[in-house]
Amino acid sequence: MNTIWKTVLRPGEKWSGNIGRGKLIRFTAVQPGANLAMLLYNSRDLNEKYNMPDTLKAQHTAHLTKGNILMSDNGRVLASIVEDSLGWHDTISGITTRAQTDEKYGQTDYQHLRNEWLRSGYENMKVELERNSLQPRDLVPPVNLFAKVQCDQEGGMHYISDHCPKGATVTLRTEMDVLLILSNTPNPLDLSKEYPAVPVRVEVMPASSPVDALDYCVNYRPENRRAFENTWDYYTLLD
């Protein structure tokens, strides 16, 4: 399959860009232990964004894998997961803050270390939001691709450190025109004493065929079909 565009996000790096519907976005962990925080917005109307509660509630899950969709707060499908070598991507642990990063890995700043300073997820997301005419108030709980966080019977959250091997992949299909925001920063629950250093490769490709009523993601759950129908109606009136 032809690659339209590709890049590698090194540890601490961030990226944002608009990607049209009908594209495949493949993420690959270059080394074990990746964590890539991801946000999605409707690029035609940035008020519409990924909604973690609705995504999980509608699909009766606390994590994402192949067949799951990423729903917006308008009940539409921003993207669907069409391939996944891991079977679990974290939706509940959020992103790191400046205070957490300093406490866990030691204080660093740009003034002394320039591009070698240790970035937090919140700072990265804030910069990319502002670059796209959004504000910190538009920040929502992200998806942490490649990460696994489980909850015990008492509600305690536990990061599974050996979940992501080298070469692990997950592929999204864009069902709407989206603004994609990425931050290659540590999972907040990662117990490592050293700042994780795992590059992630990002590739954008055309989807092989249009989505129809027999599609795997459409039929993964009844709620998925309704969200797809909402999305198809939206574009029928726009196109």
Overview of the structural elements:
There is one protein chain. The chain has one domain (5-238). The protein is 20% helix and 28% strand. The protein is built from five helices and 14 strands. The protein has helices spanning 52-59, 98-105, 110-113, 121-131, 222-238; strands spanning 5-9, 14-19, 23-29, 36-42, 63-64, 69-71, 77-84, 89-90, 143-145, 149-151, 157-159, 169-174, 178-183, 200-206. A hairpin with a 5-residue loop joins strand 10 (149-151) and strand 11. The longest helix has 17 residues, at 222-238. 42% of the residues are buried.
Which characteristics define this entry?
239 residues; six-stranded antiparallel sheet; four-stranded antiparallel sheet; alpha+beta; globular; 14 strands
Helix-strand layout with pairing:
Elements (H helix, E strand, L loop, with lengths): L4 E5 L4 E6 L3 E7 L6 E7 L9 H8 L3 E2 L4 E3 L5 E8 L4 E2 L7 H8 L4 H4 L7 H11 L11 E3 L3 E3 L5 E3 L9 E6 L3 E6 L16 E7 L15 H17 L1
Antiparallel strand pairs: 1-14, 2-13, 3-12, 3-14, 4-9, 4-13, 5-8, 6-7, 7-12, 10-11
